[in-house]
Amino acid sequence: MHELPLVFFTVLGQSAAGLYLLAYLSKKIGMVDEYQLRNANIVAFITMIIALALGALHVGQPLRFFNMLLGVGRSPMSNEALLSGIFVAFGAATLLFTLFIKNKALSELCNIGTVIFGLAFVWSIPQVYNIATVANWFTVFTTLQMWMTLLVGGGALAILLGAQRLGALAFLIGAVIIFATRAAYVSFLGETGPEISAEQAGFWSFQLVVLALMLFVVPALLYRGRNSTALLGICAIAVILAELSGRIAFYNLWQITM
């Protein structure tokens, strides 16, 4: 529980990147209109700003963020900081050319840049934690869970904001992969840190129960149609909380290999 700023930073940032991606793809294949894409981009940008603000609490002093950039190219943490900044900058530019200086071509280019650097940002996060001296983190499961948050968190937000088909598909794929790999992940942790991993059972159980429940609830709400917006909002919050719970468990696994 000692890394809560990073918990929120990673989960919200990955969910924002997923929302940008799914909303943009939905617009390209004609599943959402300009108004829905605009709203999705606004929510994704606000989500990422909140992620950065909470993540800054881990740094302590805001100016230390710039010190983190000194190792770009050789330090995974510096790469993550740089890519998060570029991601936010493109997100801001997208809204600038959508809402204020209305220019469709520039808005489109910036939206594409936001999606690309959002994915690059998500890619950079597990690079920080794949550390050989932390056996519980030094595994493909670290990378996997970061990308699955993009799918389930971003998917839940996309469903709420109108990109329902791709959002539901992304959420389904992410949730199924989480369930399919959890036994292998727990088995791996049983070898690298059995005691500390056993202490995370409550966090993982909450995550899995919520995701399982959403697999049934979300399709039922989508079937109901327009009257389910408020309930879909509650579902999106529940999914984010589930991913936060799973991420708390991940950070609690920190343990230096002796």
TrEMBL record:
GO terms for cellular component: dimethyl sulfoxide reductase complex; plasma membrane. GO terms for biological process: anaerobic electron transport chain. InterPro entries: DmsC. The chain crosses the membrane at residues 6-25, 37-61, 81-101, 108-125, 137-161, 168-189, 201-223, 230-254. GO terms for molecular function: dimethyl sulfoxide reductase activity. Keywords: Membrane, Oxidoreductase, Transmembrane, Transmembrane helix. Its EC number is 1.8.5.3. This is Dimethyl sulfoxide reductase anchor subunit.
